[in-house]
Amino acid sequence: MKNLVLKLTALMLAVTGVFSLAFIKPSAVSDDQIPVVYMHGQGGYITADSTLNGEMIYPPTLDTGYFLNLAKKLSFPFVKGDLTGNWKDYGDVIYDEIYPLFEELSLDGNGNVKNSSGPMGRPTLSPQLLTPDSKSKLRYYYIYDWRLDPEDIVDDFNEYIQAVKAKTRSEKVNIVARCFAGNIVLSYFNKYGAQSVNDCIFSCCGFGGFKVFGSAFAGEFKFDAGTIDKFVNYFLSTSEYKDDQVFQALRYFVTLSRYSGLLTIVSNNVKRAMRGIHDDGLRRIARDTVGTMPSFWVYVGDEYYEKAKSYLFAGCEDEFAGLIEKIDYYHYNILNSWESILDKAESDGARIYNVSKYGFNNLPILGKNNTMSDSILDTAVSSFGATCSVFDGVLSDEQVKQANGKYISPDMQIDASTCRYPEHTWFVKYLDHRAMPASLDYLYEEIFAFDGYTGVDDLEDYPQYLVSIEYEEKLEIADKVNTDSSSHAPQKFFKVFFGFFKAIRQIIKDK
Length: 511
Description:
Blueprint: H1 2-23, E1 36-39, E2 46-47, E3 56-58, H2 64-84, H3 88-102, E4 118-119, E5 139-142, H4 150-168, E6 173-178, H5 181-192, E7 197-203, H6 211-217, H7 225-236, H8 245-260, H9 262-276, H10 278-288, H11 294-297, H12 305-312, H13 321-334, H14 338-347, E8 351-358, H15 379-382, E9 387-388, H16 397-402, E10 414-415, E11 425-429, H17 438-449, E12 465-467, E13 476-477, H18 493-510
Parallel strand pairs: 1-5, 1-6, 6-7, 7-8, 8-11, 11-12
Antiparallel strand pairs: 2-3, 2-4, 9-10, 12-13
Helix pairs in contact: 2-3, 3-10, 4-5, 6-12, 7-8, 8-18
């Protein structure tokens, strides 16, 4: 009898618990208590079996010996190609050396994973085991396979959001979408709507296309010594590298090479080699490595898209039919509708923000190029429409005249009034595309904590224009002094000459 009573009591408690859980609703919480789902961009660790202890297949481990051996293997085929115009052997060596680095990482002809590889330490979606990021009890780090098509990730992402909501008993989440992650969010908004999202920050997202990827996928490479020199100088004079004497020595060496003509000779040789392997080696390398990954195709804008497909998949359209179908769907149905998708997200109640970077020219593979960028992505694209000067110039008098002065940067390089979200777009100077220091997290936290739709005038310490002076520390408010980039430009010969030997002396001293 006693056991029966205990069993009946246990059953009643269990039933009561089930019904009580059924009627528990997510609680409405203040803006600073809403959980944050943080989404990284491309390039996270990939292991052979998706476990923490699995064999690392990305990033590949490359030491100095690898590059010396590669240079040795390429030397004779390069000379042969330069003398005869036949670059086949050169292209074959490059392919044979590079493809094995990506063989396990690359996807199949349908854009699917062909083995057991995946993101290292992919967490379970179980709310009981879902744990916040170590930086904040409200920050959840969504790990995904960055090689895949956004449409192949979106269902998993939705499950993750629902799991976070259930775990935290919150009606909504905030999102930080970095680079490629923004494309996943577009797919999410398109398929599931934005009713579960309170605030969404897009950071360095290129819905209009990355010129450097479009150009590379279309087989178009151009090199200019002056552009290379400027890129290296601006890139290596920013806060992350300015105190590293090795990088400063490299910076000075590149400028000395331009003065001596060596950089022009090297860039011309590279151009000849690239032209020589254009139709065989270069195409095979791109197609069989990153070209198999739908995630890279989201970066190819309309300017290059069809040309890139024709170039990479020439003669093997059937082999890659599944992949082509995937990337076509995303390009023409999601990417080309990004503005209407965001309009619908706003109508669902999501508040949209943007954080863009500037202060650099693009990777020097586009020839003479002085477009304002974050080193990879044009700032006009990442900001959803800002008017920008060239990276080492200022806005024209006519551009300034037409603009609302409130939106013009202190350095006269950006006019934010033409952005899609001029009141909700921040700009950070001297942070390159891949840089994600803690100082950016502080900005995100302030945006989320504000009560309401945070505007660029609402945060005293974070107005529209900011500058990275100390890499990991708080971003500084931009002014005419700290945004002056004259010291970042290539210097005159004697200053560079003495700077180079000073850096070398410091390197020897430090050792």
